[in-house]
Amino acid sequence: MSRDAAARVRHTDATSTTLATPEEIVRLGCEVIQTEAAALAGLAAQLDGAFVDAVRILCDLRGDLIVTGMGKAGHIGAKLAATFASVGTRAHFLHPAEAFHGDLGRVQAGDAVLVLSQSGETSEVLQLLAPLRLTGVTIIALTAHHGSTLGRAADLVLPLGKLEEACSLGLAPSTSTAVMLALGDALALTVSRLRGFRAEDFARYHPGGALGLKLSAVDDHMRTLDECRVSQDWLTIREVVVGCTRPGRRSGAIMLVDSQGRLSGLFTDSDLARLIERRNDATLDAPIRDVMVHAPTTVTSGQRMSVALEVLSTRKFSELPVVDRQGRPVGMIDVTDVVGMLPEQKTSNSDHHFPDDEPPIVRLYPEVLEFDFQWGEELPETD
């Protein structure tokens, strides 16, 4: 940036800010928010039978909901169309200008059209009314003027009420767009609730979002049983660890089952490392049930992922078994697979294995137990 340009920027900044104190700047911002908040309070107080009728129309809708508007109202309309679609109502945004160049083909008999216009006299919107009528749709208007051209042409009017724009000039759409957005959200979420839209439905429509991931089932994120290490709890430690040798990716825990196939315990590589550190080879030939973690914390197949994430985060577990309703293991959630979903990325190892002052997860190859291990030797590197 040149010196002259920098000077102009500094001059502009100075003239726009030094004339007002910090308190004055905050006051001006508060005035905008308070003006819009007052309008929203008035909107809530005036909801009446027209809102009820609109909700019933949308609940019974067999076609699609088309949302249209121009300018700032159009931007609000696009957001509302996205909201309706995300909570169970098929919805699309129709730009008034594009409508006259083929996009009217999106509108079919049996659809409903939600038209946004604060004045009710937006020319581009008014030009749409005749072709929409020919299509045989229900027109619902969101406008501040019931007697406007749009208001008179609509099948149903949802009045925005008497509005004062928060702009100091009273011109820039601000209060009106805030009210449009709130009224549209009220419609969308009321219809969604009455239709019985569930969290599981939300997750289906938001598979890539953080909210959708947390609402998805643990089964969608666990390592399936063929990727896990499972053994019997009556075997010795040596038999279990050597018998669970498997190539490729593996978790740091072995799930142990009783004679009925139900999960009875958990044994981790960290547990094994502690036994080796004690230099007591005889321990390796003891039943694993003597040293395993009994009745480990689990989640049930079909539970939401948010439940598993809460357990992993608050309990600082590294592995979380997934069981069926009979308590039989069906998979395991490994913290390394879901680290990006954890709040604040808490990835500490399981608190029912290592105290805080000991090392984190240890991955050991079972081949360590198949040769004469000399204390003081370095353990083989892990993957």
Task: Characterize the structure shown.
The protein is α/β, with parallel strands linked by helices and 383 residues long. The chain folds into two domains: 3-197, Rossmann fold; 218-370, CBS-domain (Roll), CATH 3.10.580. The chain is built from 14 helices and 13 strands. It has helices at 3-17, 22-46, 49-59, 72-86, 96-99, 123-135, 149-153, 175-194, 199-205, 210-215, 237-243, 269-277, 305-315, 335-338; strands spanning 65-69, 91-94, 112-116, 138-143, 156-159, 223-224, 229-232, 253-257, 263-268, 293-294, 299-300, 319-323, 329-334. It has a five-stranded parallel sheet with strand order 2-1-3-4-5, with helices on both faces. Strands 6-13-12-11 form a four-stranded mixed sheet. Strands 7-8-9-10 form a four-stranded mixed sheet. Helix 6 (123-135) links the parallel strand 3 and strand 4 (138-143). Helix 3 crosses helix 8 (175-194). The longest helix has 25 residues, at 22-46. The radius of gyration is 32 Å and the shape is elongated.
Number of helices, where a helix is a run of at least 4 consecutive DSSP H or I residues: 14
* CATH fold-level assignment of the largest domain: Rossmann fold
The low-pLDDT segments are: 345-383
Number of strands: 13
Shape: elongated
Kindly report the name of the CATH homologous superfamily of the largest domain. Answer: Glucose-6-phosphate isomerase like protein, domain 1
CATH architecture identity of the largest domain:
3-Layer(aba) Sandwich
Task: Specify the structural class.
Answer: alpha/beta
Q: What CATH first level of the largest domain would be assigned?
A: Alpha Beta
The number of domains is 2
H-E order:
HHHEHEHEHEHEHHHEEHEEHEEHEEH
The major beta sheet can be summarized as: 5 strands, parallel
Strand content: 5-15%
